[in-house]
């Protein structure tokens, strides 16, 4: 019998175990899984969520498995372009660091960064650091922690101060540039070098990604780089060692092109998403839900003004800004729109005035007023939040629109901070989980209906609230129309669950030869008018590039 006690599975040399033990282990896994499925199903029946699982989730698992196996063609030409762009940006940011560092020639090792940010004493040459206050200390080294989260909080705290000193401001700006530099270095390593290594190993011109259903508490699909472990020759003659081989990248960490700009206006706009391309003879099509979570919030709260914002077809954030700042929409400034956008999404994700202050670089008192004005403009939102908080405290769990539950034992914790965190997580879960399940339903419907109606298309990826497909050049217009229909028409909810969604869903669609660089698709309410001429012109121009 297979007995490997006290040894983690990753440390076991499976290659040298007897086949009889391996076979027995696999059989036991299957047996345990079967019994576990029976136990879990009884729990689902008790909670009343078997319908969503049987009708949608169980089917989606198989569809997503197909996406994993298929992979995506790498846009190899753009990988080379990205390497040049990122190297240029890394060098530009490094020059800014060199000129703004108060300690010339210190370098940017962890110890150097600690010296630059937190020391105040001048050395023999008269150079000293910014003298910032550390947030946390490492117990063993007794040095300040300088991970990204801590540095971001230090930066946020400075920008949220009513009276920050000039030296503190310079220190916070240095942190901004340093984090941007580190981000670009990581992006080059993960996406340029990572994809290059993956392609060398795969030998098929494709990159692969692994989807996870059970990591995010909301049920949202998470994504990670797909890697495998292979036995290879070791350093010593005749020895074998396990080597991890990368087959791709995480698609979910690819930033949106519009969010990829540095705080510096001179920063390059780098489209990392375009490493994903369409197979020869196919058009790459990306469909993105517009403000999905906010639309779920509008449906849940039934706030009159929030519902009106979506019904009007106006820009959501300008509409919100006009209510907050009591100005006509046409007079709303870019800055006011950004403030409205920030506060809207912070409410969805459980943030508050302090977080808003760090984002827009205004005082906490100003941001408290913004939140107050938002709740006055949309009174249904705070009423709904308070009602959900009460229900979560009463039951100990939060429930999404589709019946998913997240248990939150800390809602009754004697520690106020733990309790508040759990309540924020619960309210956020209702919104995010519901939006996530709408995406899973879209995947299931697109797969099912495309085969029912004989529409040629392949599901290739999901990235956050977007769904990526490819379709043959000769028939992609039908694929676009079906994609738009599956994501925007929510009438099926009445048939499946007995309730309707009260907010129209807007879907933004682009089509081209790669992800993140296509032509916007215009489709009317009847899904007939697709600007095929413009897309074909774009395709012919870029397909050979």
Brief digest:
With about 550 residues, this protein is α+β, with helices and mostly antiparallel strands.
What does this 3D model show about the protein?
By secondary structure, the chain is an alpha+beta fold. It has helices spanning 19-47, 50-70, 76-100, 110-118, 148-159, 166-202, 292-301, 304-312, 316-324, 334-349, 353-360, 364-377, 380-395, 416-452, 476-488, 492-497, 532-543; strands spanning 72-74, 206-207, 209-212, 222-225, 227-233, 240-246, 276-277, 282-289, 397-399, 405-407, 458-463, 466-472, 507-512, 519-520. It has a domain at 78-275. Helix content is 52%, strand content 12%. The longest helix is centred in the middle third of the chain and has 37 residues, at 166-202. The model is unreliable at 259-263 and 523-530 (pLDDT under 50).
Find the count of extended strands (DSSP E, 2+ residues): 14
Overall helicity: 40-55%
Largest sheet: 5 strands, antiparallel
Q: Summarize model confidence as the mean pLDDT.
A: 84
In angstroms, what is the radius of gyration? 26 Å
Annotation field: number of helices: 17
Gross geometry: globular
SSE class: alpha+beta
Strand content: 5-15%
Strand order of the largest sheet: 11-12-8-13-14
Cα end-to-end separation: 58 Å
Residue windows where pLDDT falls under 50 for at least 5 positions: 259-263, 523-530
């Amino acid at each position: 019998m297979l007995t490997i006690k006290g040894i983690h599975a990753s440390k076991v040399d499976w290659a040298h175990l007897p086949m009889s033990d391996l076979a027995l282990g696999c059989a036991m896994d299957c047996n345990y899984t079967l019994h576990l499925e029976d136990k879990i199903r009884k729990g689902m029946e008790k909670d009343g969520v078997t319908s969503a699982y049987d009708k949608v989730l169980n089917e989606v698992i198989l569809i997503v498995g197909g996406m994993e196996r298929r992979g995506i063609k790498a846009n190899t030409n753009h990988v080379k372009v990205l390497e040049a762009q990122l190297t240029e940006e890394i060098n530009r940011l490094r020059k800014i660091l060199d000129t703004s560092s108060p300690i010339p020639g210190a370098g940017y090792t962890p110890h150097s960064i600690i010296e630059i940010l937190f020391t105040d004493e001048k050395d023999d040459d008269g150079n000293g650091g910014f003298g910032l206050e550390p947030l946390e200390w490492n117990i063993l080294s007794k040095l300040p922690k300088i991970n990204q989260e801590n540095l971001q909080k230090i930066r946020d705290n400075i920008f949220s101060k009513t009276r920050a000193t000039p030296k503190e401001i310079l220190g916070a700006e240095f942190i901004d540039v340093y984090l941007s530099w580190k981000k670009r270095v990581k992006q080059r390593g993960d996406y340029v070098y990572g994809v290059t290594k993956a392609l060398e190993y795969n030998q098929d011109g494709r990159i692969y990604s692994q989807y996870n259903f059970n990591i995010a508490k909301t049920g949202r699909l998470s994504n990670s780089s797909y890697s495998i472990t292979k036995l290879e020759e070791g350093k010593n003659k005749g020895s074998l060692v396990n080597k991890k081989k990368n087959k791709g990248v995480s698609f979910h960490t690819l930033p949106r092109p519009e969010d990829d700009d540095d705080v510096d206006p001179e920063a390059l706009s780098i489209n990392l998403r375009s490493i994903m391309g369409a197979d020869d003879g196919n058009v790459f099509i990306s469909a993105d839900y517009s403000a999905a979570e906010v639309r779920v919030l509008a449906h849940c709260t039934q706030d009159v003004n929030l519902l009106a914002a979506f019904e009007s077809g106006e820009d959501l954030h300008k509409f919100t800004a006009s209510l907050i700042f009591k100005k006509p929409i046409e007079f709303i400034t870019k800055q006011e729109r950004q403030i409205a956008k920030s506060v809207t999404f912070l409410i969805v994700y459980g943030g508050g005035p302090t977080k808003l202050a760090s984002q827009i670089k205004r005082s906490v008192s100003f941001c408290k007023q913004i939140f107050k004005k938002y709740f006055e403009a949309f009174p249904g939102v705070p009423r709904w939040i308070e009602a959900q908080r009460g229900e979560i405290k009463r039951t100990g769990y939060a429930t999404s629109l589709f019946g998913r539950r997240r248990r939150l034992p800390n809602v009754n914790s004697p520690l106020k901070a733990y309790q508040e965190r759990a309540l924020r997580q619960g309210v956020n879960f209702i919104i995010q989980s519901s939006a996530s399940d709408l995406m899973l339903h879209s995947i299931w419907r697109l797969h099912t209906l495309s085969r029912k109606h004989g529409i040629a298309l392949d599901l290739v990826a999901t990235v956050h609230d977007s769904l990526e497909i490819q379709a043959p050049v000769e028939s992609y217009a039908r694929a676009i129309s079906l994609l738009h229909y599956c994501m925007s028409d929510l009438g099926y909810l009445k048939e499946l669950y007995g309730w309707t969604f009260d907010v129209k869903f807007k879907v933004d669609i682009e089509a081209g030869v790669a992800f993140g660089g296509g032509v916007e698709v215009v489709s009317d309410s009847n899904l007939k008018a697709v600007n095929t001429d413009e897309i074909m012109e774009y395709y012919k121009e870029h397909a050979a590039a």
